[in-house]
Amino acid sequence: MSYARQMLDTFSRTVNVDPGVLAAATDAMSDCAQACTADNAADLGEHNLAEMVRCIRLCLDCTDVCNAAQAVTSRLVDYDPAVLRPLLESCVAICRSCGDECERHAKMHAHCRVCAEACRRCEQACRALLDALR
Predict the structure, then answer these.
(1) What does each C-alpha distance from 78 to 17, 18, 85, 125 come to in angstroms?
(2) Which of the following CATH numbers is that of domain 3-133: 3.40.1260.10, 1.20.1270.360, 1.25.40.10, 3.30.470.20?
């Protein structure tokens, strides 16, 4: 069981969202931010650095958005839907863009393949959370 799920189970106030969906999204955001940070570092060490600039930029953006979304999502008690929904939609968008770019490099760079997988998982988990919040 993840720490996100363990923390949700300790909440004395209920949240109107399936705790499994919420924990999966929180974990996916954290994992995606970590994968993007590591991929960014690996990209910077590649010989064809000029070809990696877009990937580097998207990984940086994805890390920042996932970290922000994870922090806000972790504080879901008495959340403001007007804040949370656009943040989750931004997370879906950047994970899709970053995942697409990393997939372009995945055959040549294993670190990009791993990052693309993390982005796809996060994109799906954020979509599931958005659906659960409706």
Answers:
(1) 12, 15, 14, 21
(2) 1.20.1270.360
